[in-house]
Structure formats: C-alpha cells, structure tokens
Amino acid sequence: MNFKSYAQLTRDVRAWSDQLPTDIVAVAGVPRSGLIPAAQLALLRNIHLVTLDDLRGGRRPWQKQLRRGVPAQPNKTRVLVVDDTVDRGVTLRGISSELCGDCDVSYGAVYYRKKLPEIVDYAYEHLPHPRIFEWNLFHCAQLRRCCVDMDGVLCEDWVAVEQDSGDGLARYLEHLKNAKPLFPCTMPMYAVVTARLEKYRRETEAWLTRHGVKYGKLVMSPHDTAAERRKASDHVIRKAEFFAANPAAQLFIESSKHQASSIHKISGKPALCSTTMELFS
C-alpha cells in the first residue's frame, strides 16, 4: 500500500518545484485535490495562482502585480495546470479542450499511476496502486479494501473509563447516540472493526446509518462489560486477527499509533494511524 500524507505532499511539491521550468508565471489547480499542490507551488515560487475559469475566459491575472511582492508578468504567458495525481489523463484532456487564448499551457501532476499520458508535460513521482492519500482518505475507492476503527476515527473518542453502570453508563449511551463525526465518508468501507461491546450493536448501527457510513461488516467485542474487556486486553489482537483473516482487506485505519503498529506486526499487513497519519508497512 502506497500512502501520502499532507506533510509528504508538501515535501514532494518542494522537490518537484526545483525540477520545473523557471519561466512559469502562474499555476492553476484542478479542483479539488489539485488546488493543494497548485497553491503550494505558487507560494514557493512567488507567482500567481489562477483559476481554470481565468484560463477558459482568456484572462491573464498575472499581468497585474499582487500584494506581498508577487510581480506582474505582462510579457510572459507560460501557465502550469496541476493535479495531485494522474492516471489516463482524461481530466486534463477535458480541461485542455476547454481553454481558449494564446497562453502557453503545460500540464502536470505530482504523482502518476503508470506510463504518463501524452497530455502530461511534468510529473514528479511514480506511485502505483494500491495507493491512498490523506486528503481523500474517506473519499476514494480504496476504502472498499479498508478496515476502519470506530471511536477516534469515524467519531470522537470516548475518553472516560467508567461505562458499565450509573452516571458513566448514561453518559456513554449519550456518546453512542450523539458522538461527533470526525471524517465524513462518501465511499463504502470493507468493515468497521471496533472495541465497542457487541451489546451496543444497535446503537452503533444507528449512528453509522444516521451519518451515511456504508460498510460491509461491523465487528465488535464479545465481552459482556467494559471491565471484562479491559481485563482481557485483547482488543488489538482481535482487530489484527480479523484483518489478517480477510484477504480482501488491504489496510487497517486505526486512531491509536500504538495499536496501528501492533496491528501491522500481528497481521503482517499495512496499518495507518489516522491521528499522526503514519503508515506502518
């Protein structure tokens, strides 16, 4: 599994900038993910950041000076259209067919899957599938091959210890019902694998349905109480064993760095800590 975090993207764009031509006067990003490296390149080079609509309309914003010392470039026309990644080049070819004017437009992508399509003039790194990025972690097709933790990933974590009785139970039931979602999910995942107790399956399913989370399986802890679960201390092993036993699952997304590392070691498969965005592989 190949993974890129925002931090890694920033380092890669900085290195890529050193390789690109020096006469580029403006950068335009392909919405949405291409806007990130486009803005980074524009800031690194102190040049104009323009929109695709500017280019479609034949406008040349780079002919005027911007604040913070971004100079006007009245006699140059070289513009770079950037996306985060390219596969067959369909999106970039579509953009190319829409542009008008006599600008010298080049096309680039930070990452590419296989042989570069003809439309691409510049690319930085070959990054084949399977791959996943921090900026589209829960919006990509690879999520179908992921096991995902519940508390701390899909929703805010339960921080109190007591949840078996009294006021602690009442507050925990409120958490199960109204926990704040952390990552909106637009793609189905292979399985939600959680240390939550099996007896709270109905409440957990209701929360997942209410927030539009689609999944193939919901795997929960078989213990009767949280105290029994803490005594057994087997939640990491259970997660890792389920992950290892399902070949279709290629990545485990876990909120705890320690647990992600352990899941990787036990299962022998990649695990990602969603808190630090570190991949153990």
Can you give a write-up of this model?
It is a single chain. With 281 residues, this protein is an alpha/beta fold. The protein contains nine helices and 13 strands. The strands form three sheets. The chain has a six-stranded mixed β-sheet, covered by helices on one side. A five-stranded parallel β-sheet has the order 3-2-4-5-6. Helix 1 (6-19) packs across helix 2 (35-45), helix 5 (166-178) runs parallel beside helix 6 (201-210) and helix 8 packs across helix 9. The chain is elongated, with a radius of gyration of 23 Å. The mean pLDDT is 94.
Short description:
With 281 residues, this protein is of the alpha/beta class. The protein is 32% helix and 23% strand.
- Uncertain residue segments: none
Structural category is alpha/beta
Largest sheet: 6 strands, mixed
Strand order of the largest sheet: 10-9-8-11-12-13
Secondary structure tally: strands: 13
Return the string of H and E elements.
EHEHEHEHEEEEHEHEHHEHEE
| Rg (C-alpha, Å) | 23 Å
Number of helices: 9
Overall pLDDT score: 94
Name the helicity range: 25-40%
Shape annotation: elongated
Beta-strand portion reads 15-25%
CA(first)-CA(last) distance: 8 Å
What is the topological layout?
Blueprint: E1 2-4, H1 6-19, E2 26-29, H2 35-45, E3 48-50, H3 52-56, E4 78-86, H4 90-98, E5 104-112, E6 122-126, E7 131-133, E8 146-148, H5 166-178, E9 189-197, H6 201-210, E10 215-221, H7 226-232, H8 235-245, E11 251-254, H9 257-267, E12 271-273, E13 278-280
Helix pairs in contact: 1-2, 5-6, 8-9
